[in-house]
C-alpha cells in the first residue's frame, strides 16, 4: 500500500473519501471557472469552431498533459516516475482516452455555454 494515500479498506478513511469526493470536485470546478471568467465574454464572440478548439485544447493540456500529479503520460511522470512504470503502450491508450474526453467536453461546452 502506498503510505500517502487513504486506505479504502479502512472504514474511517473510506468514509472520509466518500464524504469529501464530490465537494472537492465542485470546488476544483469553481476554481477552474474563476480562472476562465475574464475571457468568457471573448469566447462568446468567437465562432463555434474556434470555441470548440480553444476549450478542447485547454481541457487537454490543463487536465492531463500539464497536470501536477505524476503519471506516465504527463510531464510530472517523466520527472518523478521510475522508468519501469513509463510504458509506451499505456501512454498512447491514456492519451487517446483523454483526447476523446477533451473533444466531447469541448464540443458540449462550446455549444451550450453560448
Task: Write out key terms for the chains shown.
114 residues; mainly alpha; 2 domains; 5 helices; 70% helix
Describe this structure in words.
The chain has helices at residues 11-36, 40-44, 48-65, 75-80, 88-112. It is mainly α and 114 residues long. It has two domains: 7-38; 46-112, no CATH class. Helix 3 runs antiparallel to helix 5.
Write the layout of secondary structure elements.
Layout: H1 11-36, H2 40-44, H3 48-65, H4 75-80, H5 88-112
Helix pairs in contact: 3-5
**Taking Cα atoms only, what radius of gyration do you get, to the nearest Å?**
17 Å
* Mean model confidence by pLDDT: 85
Q: Characterize the main sheet.
A: none
Q: How many domains?
A: 2
Name the poorly predicted regions: none
Query: Strand share of the residues?
Result: under 5%
Estimated structural class: mainly alpha
**Helical region count?**
5
Total beta strands: 0
Distance between the termini: 46 Å
SSE order? HHHHH
Helix share of residues? over 70%
Shape category: globular
Summarize the model shown.
The chain is mainly alpha-helical and 114 residues long.
Amino acid at each position: 500500500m502506498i503510505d500517502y494515500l487513504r486506505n479504502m479498506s479502512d472504514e474511517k478513511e473510506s468514509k472520509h473519501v466518500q464524504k469529501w469526493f464530490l465537494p472537492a470536485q465542485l470546488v476544483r470546478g469553481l476554481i477552474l471557472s474563476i480562472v476562465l471568467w475574464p475571457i468568457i465574454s471573448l469566447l462568446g464572440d468567437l465562432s463555434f469552431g474556434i470555441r470548440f478548439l480553444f476549450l478542447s485544447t485547454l481541457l487537454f493540456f490543463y487536465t492531463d498533459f500539464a497536470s501536477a500529479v505524476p503519471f506516465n503520460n504527463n510531464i510530472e511522470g517523466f520527472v518523478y516516475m521510475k522508468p519501469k512504470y513509463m510504458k509506451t503502450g499505456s501512454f498512447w491508450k491514456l492519451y487517446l482516452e483523454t483526447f476523446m474526453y477533451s473533444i466531447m467536453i469541448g464540443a458540449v461546452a462550446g455549444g451550450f455555454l453560448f
